[in-house]
Amino acid sequence: MKSPDGLSGLTEVGGSLVIQATSFETLEGLENLTHIGKDVVISGNPNLKTFDGIGTLSRSTEIGESLILINNDSIPDLEGLHTITHIGKNLFIGSKDSMTSLAGLENISEIPGELSLLQNKNLQTLAGSPPLDRIGGLQILSNPSLKSLE
Predict the structure, then answer these.
(1) Can you say whether the dihedral through the CA atoms of 142, 121, 128, 113 is positive or negative?
(2) pTM for this entry
(3) Are 66 and 87 in contact (CB under 8 A)?
(4) What distances in angstroms separate CA 95 from CA 50, 60, 69, 120, 134, one per listed residue?
(5) Range from 46-50, 66-70, 77-81, 142-146 carrying the lowest mean pLDDT
(6) DSSP state of 80
(7) Which residues share a beta bridge with 13?
(8) Is 77 helix (H, G, I), strand (E, B) or coil?
(9) What is the dihedral of CA 26, 52, 131, 61, to 10 degrees?
(10) For residues 23 and 9, what is the distance between their CA atoms, to the nearest angstrom?
(11) For 114-143, what is each residue's pLDDT tens digit?
């Protein structure tokens, strides 16, 4: 299976949406989602090429709790997430070796919990990061290519 296209009728997930260790190449099929009540976890999907395909979710989403992106190395950027506007708790991005910036997250207005950037080998800049006035915590660890916080 190359995408979750069998879920195209799904409009809301009351709990968490976890896409982990799949052979998905796209997230097409999730375009009708408008609300996730808890966490969105996208982790360990070596064939996933883009976050595009989440459709309405990425146009006007509210993620009730955390957005967790780990080990999705074939995705070079976060552009498919460019219009997420609200995360209820934490944003965690880790072990994403192909990512060089945070472009795609610029429409998030607040992160009440932690913003964690961990072990992103080629992250060079925080350009594209959310224009945050307030966050609950900040972790920037083991990002050896990151030269400044600008």
Answers:
(1) negative
(2) 0.90
(3) yes
(4) 16, 27, 9, 5, 25
(5) 77-81
(6) G
(7) 36
(8) coil
(9) -100
(10) 21
(11) 999 999 999 999 888 888 778 899 999 999
